[in-house]
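Input record, target 12 of the design panel.
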């Protein structure tokens, strides 16, 4: 299913660990960009469902596109939400790191559960990740990593908010 929110679980955990060195918005944008090609295939019935976009070569190109477009979109979104002036910025480095983590993790997660993913194309059509864990375990891991990420993120936020109020 294109645009699955299950991919955001690991992103939430990475955000909790990297904090300002990672943009969850650019990461999420890269997830959407990755699934445009499968969506087109589903709507048209033409093509390979998890085709070029779900290879590391395709993910590299889409990461570049996601970083370049996602940073601007994210900064615009932050401005609309009134957060742009509160020290929330997305540097180009953060945008590229977030986009590459987003697209590469997408390939890994989909390669584990979809038999038509060929992550190393054009070098080989083999997918050594297929069935590494069950689909149920993969979904649980994504869900739990997201929940743990939320807990860590807000615990760190709460700790520093409380610490700032003491002084």
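The sequence produced for target 12 reads:
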């Amino acid at each position: 299913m294109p645009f699955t929110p299950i991919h955001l679980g690991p992103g939430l955990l990475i955000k909790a660990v990297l904090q300002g060195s990672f943009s969850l918005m650019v990461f999420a944008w890269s997830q959407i960009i990755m699934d445009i090609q499968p969506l087109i295939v589903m709507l048209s019935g033409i093509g390979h469902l998890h085709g070029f976009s779900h290879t590391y070569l395709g993910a590299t190109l889409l990461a570049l596109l996601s970083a370049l477009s996602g940073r601007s979109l994210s900064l615009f979104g932050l401005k609309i939400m009134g957060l742009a002036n509160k020290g929330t910025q997305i540097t180009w480095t953060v945008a590229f790191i977030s986009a590459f983590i987003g697209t590469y993790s997408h390939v890994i997660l989909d390669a584990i559960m979809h038999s038509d993913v060929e992550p190393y194309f054009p070098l080989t059509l083999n997918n050594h990740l297929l069935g590494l864990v069950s689909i149920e375990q993969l979904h649980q891991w994504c869900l739990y990593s997201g929940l743990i990420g939320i807990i860590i993120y807000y615990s760190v936020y709460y700790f520093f908010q409380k610490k700032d109020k003491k002084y």
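Residues 64 and 96 are 7 Å apart (CA to CA).
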